[in-house]
Design goal:
heterodimer; A: about 500 residues; alpha/beta; Rossmann fold; 2 domains; 6-stranded mixed sheet; 18 helices; disordered C terminus; B: about 350 residues; mainly alpha; two-stranded antiparallel ribbon; 13 helices; about 5% strand; globular; transmembrane (chain B); ABC transporter permease (chain B); membrane (chain B); transmembrane helix (chain B)
């Protein structure tokens, strides 16, 4: 098998941080080669060097054994390298066809839409991609938008495709389709670089290069390795995938939700008659594919969105329709799913973020001024306690990795909450090591006597942690089940819209 | 090939160098402009220097001219840091002078220790009213603050025009209708700092205001919320900050500063209500705040620089024989180069050798 691309001794430094340290990497023709590593291990830096976003400080990139100089993404495209980013670069108001041909036409100033349409039709038919070229991008669900990006790369006749965390936004079904088509591309001689930190995806590749702290730890043939070995190589130590959850008898009811409904921007029902309750020492898991009302449920519970109907009883008090401030003051902690948009001010320092929302609390103020000593002291304490990897408390939170940013939010919410923690996708996009850490922290809070509502798209999270699992579909609860007696497949069926046995919901009534 | 590369972190020395380059480039461009009028460039710059810092009297004029600009600059800083694009400083300056004038009618006869704080408070309250209207329009009806504040500017300017010409505040008695009110009584003149110089006590207020703004922005919960609102309002909303209320507070604080500029112009400089010494102070304040890097201390320096330009302008016109419109042109050129410097400071210039 010939080599499509080789990287030799690549080193890239950013302001004193070595993101890639003497990295060797080779991509064979027709293979899926996975770049595997934690956030900040150097996967993205390496791919950005290959795609021409960064210039390596040292080392060479060879295409078909010829050294090449890739100065910009345009150079990379000319060399037949395409990249699909985690965050899409599409114009929502344009159609699929327009998005693909804009900026990619090589025929000068005239847009030749008919020719492009012909070529794209051929590509779609060849790969079995079912996508309406005249649909507006804003009409497409996120999973389909990704196809537009992939089509763009295919349209440019790329021979090497870099996929950056492609399944982050996909349902399990959609990822399966993606991998089927990626396989077909390989069969036609394309080579794929797959960037991921998910073990499930790694196991679908041909070879794996594991990066840790900017260095290549190993390059392995996938059939000859195991998920456990890969996880150990990535983190540098053994990882326990199942945290141990002690049996705890639920205490008094902390949160009781009855008949809760909410409407979206266009008046559509985003939450329909949702009822459940959570008690002290209990974790209620919310399962469901993203976009089925979990986010809206959390927004209503933490006061950011007004409910249309229903009641929310928190510690015996009706709190439906109260402001976020009132909910926070009553002891509700909230870990939102979009951490950099809703949970943090990225430009603020770690210390400032630790007191976000509590900046007027007398604990952190001295007279009319904020008490800098108290705040930095607290931040240092939190950095130590939650193992937040940062140079010091003055670093802007936006400069930290997703996992460390999440730890700031967890530290802040756990510190200020009493009684209830709402956690929406707390492990999304995090490394195995951090996921384990977050899970342990949630269980610690449960043991302390908190009630926790936890939504996660990773069923493993829920089966590991939850005492009860409520499955959501299109804003409704399909059933509340006991993870000890239900299978993953049964929950999966409910996630697709089938009503489940609500054996456990009897418990809810008696609770 | 020369390439601009974005910097990961700001470099203080390079930032300083960019701004020095901006001043040099701004002066060079101004020199070209001056030369194009046929005037002698060194003479004109000499006149500018003499008129702005050349004598105690020139310095006093610079301070008096800088005072309202620093205040409207600070008004800009407070709003823009929160990403509230208020352009209402112009109308708020007018409102400040009008409110002050009204206050002077009502509070006439009070001892100075009560009179001056009282009339300045009247002026600031009038400005805050305008700020509040724009805030409510934004929070309740989602009206863009740029639109609403510009419209309010027109409203206020024409209201003053009516009040002075044909309205109750116009100067009457002469055969010619001046666009101005009668003179205020001597008791309503802000006292001079040194003897009978033009340097009135009001010039101290901008510096006090700048110090307070700097403290508020960096050390208080309100400043924290202003900065946070500018960076990520969504996170603040999730963390219990009442956005509508905070926007109102910011708009009103900003308006109060701009209005104070109008009030000290009235009581310290013109001593009668008239439009021509108020026109442009608010818009210039936006430039001053931007050149000051949206920092209170930077705004003080930018305000002094612009005050010097304004004060030197008179000399420049007389001694250098150049058109009066040169000064706003120089202000514009300076802003342009400072904005360029602001961008440049975030990039590094890399000389690249093309391989192959």
């Amino acid at each position: 098998m010939s080599t499509a691309l080789r990287v030799e001794g690549l080193t890239k430094r950013f302001a004193g941080v070595t993101a890639n340290d003497d990295v060797d990497f080779d991509l064979r023709r027709g293979e899926i080669h996975c770049l595997f590593g934690e956030n900040g291990a150097g996967k993205s830096t390496l791919s950005s060097c290959i795609f021409g976003f960064y210039r390596p400080d040292k080392g060479e990139i060879l295409l078909h054994d010829q050294p090449v100089h890739i100065a910009s993404p345009m150079d990379a495209i000319r060399h037949g390298i395409g990249m699909v980013h985690q965050h899409f670069v599409l114009v929502p108001e344009f159609t699929v066809l327009e998005n693909i041909i804009v900026g990619t036409q090589r025929s000068g100033w005239r847009l030749n839409a008919a020719e492009a349409r012909q070529k794209l039709k051929g590509i779609c038919d060849g790969y079995g991609i079912d996508l309406d070229l005249d649909a507006y991008v804003w009409e497409l669900p996120v999973g389909r938008q990704q196809w537009v990006e992939i089509l763009k790369v295919l349209y440019l006749d790329a021979q090497i495709l870099i996929l950056d965390e492609p399944t982050a936004v996909l349902t399990p079904g959609e990822s399966r389709v993606l991998f089927d088509i990626v396989r077909k591309m390989c069969a036609r001689g394309m080579s794929i670089i797959l960037i991921t930190h998910k073990l499930v995806e790694v196991m679908q590749s041909d070879r794996v290069t594991v990066l840790r702290k900017g260095k290549v730890v190993a390059t392995l043939d996938r059939p000859e390795t195991t998920p456990d070995e890969l996880a150990r190589l990535m983190v540098g130590r053994d990882v326990f995938f199942t945290v141990t959850k002690p049996e705890l008898a639920p205490g008094e009811t902390i949160l009781a939700v009855e008949g809760l409904s909410a409407r979206g921007f266009w008046g559509d029902a985003v939450l329909k008659d949702v009822s459940f309750s959570v008690a002290r020492h209990q974790i209620l898991g919310i399962a469901g594919v993203a976009g089925n009302g979990q986010k809206e449920l959390f927004e209503v519970l933490c006061g950011v969105r007004r409910p249309a109907a229903g009641s929310i009883i928190f510690k015996g008090e009706e709190v439906a329709g109260m402001s976020p401030r009132a909910m926070m003051d009553r002891g509700v902690g909230h870990i939102p799913d979009d951490r950099f948009r809703e949970g943090l001010v990225p430009e603020f320092s770690v210390a400032e973020n630790v007191v976000l929302g509590w900046q007027r609390n007398p604990k952190y103020c001295k007279g009319p001024l904020m008490d800098r000593d108290a705040i930095t002291g607290l931040a240092r304490e939190m950095i130590g306690e939650y193992q937040i990897a940062t140079r010091d408390e003055h670093v802007a939170a936006g400069k930290l990795s997703g996992g460390n940013a999440q730890k700031i939010i967890i530290a802040r919410e756990f510190l200020h909450a009493s009684g209830l923690v709402l956690a929406n996708q707390p492990t999304r996009g995090l490394d195995v090591g951090v996921i384990e850490y977050v899970q342990t922290q949630l269980l610690k809070k449960r043991a302390e006597g908190f009630a926790i509502v936890l939504a996660s798209e990773e069923l493993s999270d829920l089966f590991n942690l939850a005492d009860l699992i409520a499955v959501m579909f299109k804003g409704e609860i399909m059933g509340i089940v006991d993870p000890r007696t239900v299978t993953v497949a049964e929950v999966g069926v409910m996630m697709a819209g089938r009503r489940g046995e609500t054996a456990a919901s009897k418990k809810r009534v008696s609770a | 090939m020369i390439v601009f590369e974005r910097r990961m972190e700001a470099n203080a020395l390079w930032t300083l160098a960019s701004f020095i380059m901006a001043i040099v480039a701004g002066l060079a461009a101004s020199a070209i402009l001056i030369a194009s009028t046929g005037a002698n460039v060194p003479d004109v710059f000499g006149a500018l220097l003499q008129g702005s810092v050349g004598s105690p009297k020139a310095l006093a004029t610079t301070l008096v001219k800088a005072a309202p600009l620093i205040l409207t600059g600070l008004a800009t800083v407070i709003a823009f840091r929160a990403q509230i694009w208020s352009i209402g400083q112009e109308g708020q300056v007018f409102a400040g002078a009008m409110g002050g004038y009204l206050g002077a009618q009502l509070l006439a006869g009070l001892p100075p220790v009560l009179f001056f704080p009282g009339v300045l408070a009247f002026g600031m309250a009038a400005g805050m009213g305008l700020g509040w209207i724009a805030a409510v329009l934004r929070s309740r009806f989602a009206v863009n603050e740029i639109i609403s504040t510009v419209m309010l500017n027109y409203l206020v300017v024409y209201l003053l025009s009516w009040l002075l010409q044909g309205g109750p505040w116009g100067e009457t008695g002469g055969t010619v209708a001046y666009h101005q009110s009668p003179m205020l009584p001597d008791a309503a003149f802000l006292p001079a700092l040194f003897g009978s110089s033009r340097l009135h006590a009001g010039v101290l207020l901008p510096f006090l205001a700048a110090a307070i703004c700097a403290l508020v922005m960096s050390r208080t919960p309100l400043g924290y919320e202003i900065r946070g609102l500018g960076y990520n309002p969504e996170a603040l909303r999730h963390k219990g900050v009442d956005i509508a209320r905070t926007v109102s507070v910011i708009m009103m604080a900003s308006a109060a500063l701009a209005a104070l500029a109008g009030a000290i112009e009235l009581f310290g400089v013109s001593h009668r209500l008239r439009a021509d010494n108020l026109i442009g102070l608010g818009y210039a304040g936006i430039i001053v705040g931007m050149i000051g890097g949206l920092s209170p201390i930077g705004t003080v320096f930018a305000g002094l620089f612009f005050g010097g330009l304004a004060s030197g302008a008179v000399y420049m016109r007389v001694l250098g024989d150049v058109p009066a419109s040169l000064v706003p042109a120089m202000q514009g050129i300076t802003l342009f180069f400072f904005l360029c410097a602001g961008v440049l400071a975030r990039y590094r210039i890399v000389m690249k050798v093309a391989v192959q």
